[in-house]
Design goal:
Blueprint lengths: L3 H12 L20 H6 L2 E3 L5 E3 L4 H9 L2 H9 L8 H8 L11 H20 L4 E4 L5 E4 L5 E2 L1 H11 L4 H10 L1
Antiparallel strand pairs: 1-2, 3-4, 4-5
Helix pairs in contact: 5-8, 6-7, 6-8
């Protein structure tokens, strides 16, 4: 399976500084894979509730990985919209014509990207919000209050149904 943002991230990791063990975060020979591979490439520990939490050292790398959203960014750019990781850009994404609904192969990928973009905006703009790897290796955003937002599920719902709107989910997270 070809996942462009994951390939790009792994390439950056393999050319970056080596870890204490002499290997990089992405092992040589690893090809593009599924979402479960994401948990394998970051330092993960268990939180109090048993959920996997990205280690502090990998928090920036995880945020960078999830912020790629290449498909969503290209769809937005095609209509002249620049995604700047702001709350206002979420509102603009909500206004895009849902042409992707005509393509059943594109729909889940775009929904995934929309969820990751939502999470990126929340993590970058809501104090205390951070990325975590939840059950099954799925990315979630945990707010300072402890509430978790399953952003990929929200993005898929948005891509398929148009609701809830991404900005609405952001607004609820920002006031929590």
């Amino acid at each position: 399976m070809n996942i462009p943002f994951l390939d790009k991230w792994r390439k950056q990791q393999s050319t970056g500084p080596e870890t204490e063990g002499g290997t990089t975060a992405a092992s040589p020979g690893q090809g593009p894979g599924d979402a479960a591979d994401v948990a394998d490439t970051v330092d993960v520990e268990r939180g109090e509730d048993g959920a996997e939490v990205a280690g502090a050292a990998d928090g920036a790398g995880l945020a960078e990985l999830f912020s790629e959203c290449e498909l969503l960014r290209s769809q937005a750019a095609a209509v002249g919209l620049r995604l700047d990781d702001s709350a206002a850009s979420l509102s603009a994404v909500d206004q895009l014509l849902p042409r992707w609904r005509d393509d059943p192969e594109l729909l889940p990928w775009l929904g995934n990207d929309a969820g990751l973009y939502l999470g990126t905006v929340i993590v970058r703009t809501v104090p205390g919000a951070s990325w975590h790897v939840g059950p099954g290796g799925h990315p979630v955003v945990r707010l300072a209050s402890g509430r978790e937002i399953h952003v990929v599920e929200a993005g898929l719902d948005w891509a398929v149904n148009g609701a809830p709107e991404l900005f609405q989910i952001y607004a609820e997270a920002a006031e929590a």
